[in-house]
Amino acid sequence: MLQTFGFSLYESKVYEALASSGEPLDAAMVVKHSGVPKAKIYEVLNRLVEKGMVLDTVSEKKKRYTALPLDSLVEKLTRQFQTDVKKLTSSLSHKAVRDDRVWSLKVDESIRAECKQLIQRATRSIRISAWSNDFLEYVPLLEMKEKEGVEIEALVIGQINTKLSCVHSFIPVQEHQGLERYQLIVADQDEMIFAGEEDTGWHAIKTRGQPFVKFFADSFYHDVALTKITQKYVDQLFDDEEIRKMIIRLRY
């Protein structure tokens, strides 16, 4: 029976011999009652002592052994089993396969619903960029997440009124009139959705693939930096025609 718990045949035989004996046994007597070869007996006994299955003592200049009582053995094996199950569960959860696939999603309502779910799942940070009329729909949920301690940073194309702590506003100039609406959400630096408006409607991609998440997170900060620099040095930058054209091209 002990072999079902991972003990070897020799270990099982030695424990059975000691458990069925009414008194402690020395190594020679264990060999006699267990049938384990003499050459192996000390190795097996030492393993059982190390595993807490056998107790040893020195009596009358002889080392003697006795088995851990059955009740104690049952409790030991039960605790060990429960501990092993917890370790297994933890190990498997940590090694869960990450879904790095890029998913495609269409239809405006479906995309907005998935964006809200992504915001809702965030526990540490949210980076969001969108046009003001699209961003407005997410404001109540974002304000709630910020109250929960989630770090929110937003870049809004157009004007917006919100209680959020960190919102950057970009006001397009005349040359930007050809810009297409888009939405970008990066949650916990772990998952992202990017949606763009096309002739046939909205089309989005969603992924947890880290190359994509990092790329779009960097793009968000690129746009924030460009917005802040342009706002601070608007006269100097836009007075230079070459730089003006370059900045216009940089903006999505």
UniProtKB/TrEMBL annotation:
<dbReference type="InterPro" id="IPR021586">
    <property type="entry name" value="Tscrpt_reg_TrmB_C"/>
</dbReference>
<feature type="domain" description="Transcription regulator TrmB C-terminal">
    <location>
        <begin position="102"/>
        <end position="222"/>
    </location>
</feature>
<dbReference type="InterPro" id="IPR036388">
    <property type="entry name" value="WH-like_DNA-bd_sf"/>
</dbReference>
<dbReference type="Pfam" id="PF01978">
    <property type="entry name" value="TrmB"/>
</dbReference>
<dbReference type="InterPro" id="IPR036390">
    <property type="entry name" value="WH_DNA-bd_sf"/>
</dbReference>
<dbReference type="Pfam" id="PF11495">
    <property type="entry name" value="Regulator_TrmB"/>
</dbReference>
<dbReference type="InterPro" id="IPR051797">
    <property type="entry name" value="TrmB-like"/>
</dbReference>
<dbReference type="InterPro" id="IPR002831">
    <property type="entry name" value="Tscrpt_reg_TrmB_N"/>
</dbReference>
<feature type="domain" description="Transcription regulator TrmB N-terminal">
    <location>
        <begin position="2"/>
        <end position="70"/>
    </location>
</feature>
<protein>
    <submittedName>
        <fullName>TrmB family transcriptional regulator</fullName>
    </submittedName>
</protein>
